[in-house]
Amino acid sequence: QKEVEQDPGPLSVPEGAIVSLNCTYSNSAFQYFMWYRQYSRKGPELLMYTYSSGNKEDGRFTAQVDKSSKYISLFIRDSQPSDSATYLCAMSAIKAAGNKLTFGGGTRVLVKP
Amino acid sequence: GAVVSQHPSWVICKSGTSVKIECRSLDFQATTMFWYRQFPKQSLMLMATSNEGSKATYEQGVEKDKFLINHASLTLSTLTVTSAHPEDSSFYICSASYPGQYNEQFFGPGTRLTVL
After folding, report:
1. Taking CB atoms and an 8 Å cutoff, what residues of chain A touch B49?
2. Of A18, A30, B93, B101, which has the fewest Cβ atoms less than 10 A away?
3. Are A38 and A45 in contact (CB under 8 A)?
């Protein structure tokens, strides 16, 4: 069993819909949670960073962390075709400079005009 | 801010030659950089952690003599694929730890290596 599980998709939604993404994890030591967006043949781009449980909102993006359930989510409101990409969740137990990230496998999202 | 660059973005080489890939943090100093490998439609696989002024720490199964990493300054890390073979063809991505509150990792755009 992988430490971080993420549905590979593809997740296809019409433009303007809410995109709902999630990851589950098994390591209770994880405290720092990230969402990255990766376009094809590009490096990942950091979208959201959250610490411990709770919600965080940034523009059209909302990240939620439920440590009791070992479950994190990313919601994208008013989705646009430009949101079509692979979304990777990542997490770590510490925040030091040398902290290794554990990634989910990524979910491919397609937003259709 | 927090921009990481990689050079080259795409390289084709013959089997048996060596290829060097550069990773630079353009607007911040990074004591730690990371090198990843990514196969098509798969997630990132960490190869090694690079610390400025010291030897890199390689993940289990990664040949350190084949993938030479040098982190000579706070803004530059290099990955050299020695005696490259077709099975080394892949997408190589670096990241750098930004010296902020959480030491977030910011990624470069990646380098696509094709070995003929």
Report:
1. 98, 100
2. B101
3. yes
